[in-house]
Write a structure and sequence with these properties.
- The longest helix is centred in the N-terminal third of the chain and has 25 residues, at 2-26.
- 43% of the residues are buried.
- The strands form 5 sheets. Strands 13, 14, 15, 16 and 17 form a 5-stranded antiparallel beta sheet that branches.
- The N and C termini lie far apart (73 Å).
- The chain is mainly beta and 317 residues long.
- It is built from 2 helices and 20 strands.
- Bound molecules: beta-L-arabinofuranose.
- Beta-L-arabinofuranose is lined by residues 37-38, 53, 60, 97-98, 113, 149-150, 197-198, 217, 256.
Length: 317
């Protein structure tokens, strides 16, 4: 009997180990090599672009921002450093985090966190060169409650642009037509249940989706939830029940995402980071892409972090 118990437990441990190994093997490859987090994905013309945070230092001490491009979402090309804080920005030196890009009036506007302020730089091309548009932060550190980080800019069909930002609270305000000004008296601050940071906004079939990350980015439970509204500034109602994106098995800390639609199709993808596999943590994260789907009512279905992204084609002119 004693031997039977030992054999049973040995077999159990062996199969558990095999299961874990299979899990590791099945985690899809990253789309960017190395450690990059907070990917902001966008499509301009015939190419997709990713603007991430450079990871790999405790306390996220990165000082510059890079840009990556792809024709099919699978194969990504390193473009270059598009903003180097010590060189290009006079008011911040490090903690180059979580950028976002928006296109309006023939210009590309690049919003970025730097030393817990938010700045904005402008360029004629998605790959830069970007120039500090204001010579000072667009949102100053400690201006509101929480950290002044994680900008997101959504440009609506009528051309009106909206800035969303903040850790702790989600702050939102309409931007001026110049994309680099706003009326601070008009800022709306909300805190949907579970909201921590990393807001992202998009529109589908007339409905506005505000998405965000919950928990701390160093927590393996880091995940993404969302709310919807009939207007870009809300009121937003949280979709309860499940996180849209959440780690599973060897995939941990999946969050701080962005979403892109394939032009001309109702086909959507979510770019996000997870702890590096193997051996990652909240300072060593890697960038992935998975398909994102909706049900008939427009609810976002849970993303499968083990589903590989397949090559897509952009057919627009
Ligand atoms: O990458 C640095 C910070 O970690 C971001 O600003 C947060 O959203 C979190 O992902």
């Amino acid at each position: 009997m004693r031997y039977a118990v030992i054999i049973f437990f040995s077999l159990f441990l062996l199969s558990a180990n095999a299961y874990c190994q299979a899990d590791t093997l099945h985690a899809p490859a990253t789309v960017l090599p190395g450690v990059f987090a907070d990917p902001h994905i966008a499509v301009f013309g015939k190419k997709f672009y990713i603007y991430p945070t450079t990871d790999g230092t405790e306390g996220w001490k990165g000082t510059s921002f890079t840009c990556w491009s792809s024709k099919n979402l699978v194969k990504w090309k390193y473009e270059k450093v598009i903003l180097d804080l010590p060189k290009d920005i006079g008011w911040a030196k490090e903690r180059a985090w979580a950028p976002a890009i928006a296109y309006k009036n023939g210009k590309y506007y690049y919003y970025f966190s730097a030393d817990v302020n938010i700045g904005v730089a402008v360029a004629d091309k998605p790959t830069g060169p970007f120039k500090d548009a204001l010579g000072k932060p667009l949102v100053r550190r400690a201006m509101l409650k929480g950290q002044m980080i994680d900008p997101m800019v959504f440009v609506d069909d009528d051309g009106a642009a909206y800035l969303y930002f903040g850790q702790g609270n989600c702050n939102m305000v309409q931007l001026g037509d110049d994309m680099i000004s706003y009326d601070s008296a008009k800022i709306i601050s909300i805190k949907p249940k579970g909201y921590n940071e990393g807001s992202f906004v998009f529109k589908r079939n007339g409905k506005y989706y505000l998405m965000w990350s919950e928990y701390d980015t160093r927590d393996p439970r880091y995940s993404v939830a969302y709310a919807t509204a009939d207007s870009p500034l809300g009121p937003f109602v949280k979709a309860e029940g499940y996180p849209v994106l959440k780690g599973k098995g060897v995939v941990k800390g999946a969050g701080h995402h962005s979403v892109v639609k394939v032009p001309g199709k109702d086909e959507w993808y979510i770019a996000y980071h997870r702890f590096k596999i193997p051996g990652g943590n909240g300072y060593n994260r890697e960038t992935c892409i998975s398909p994102m789907r909706f049900d008939k009512e427009g609810n976002i279905l849970p993303v499968d972090v083990f589903e590989k992204v397949k090559a897509v084609k952009i057919h627009n002119k």
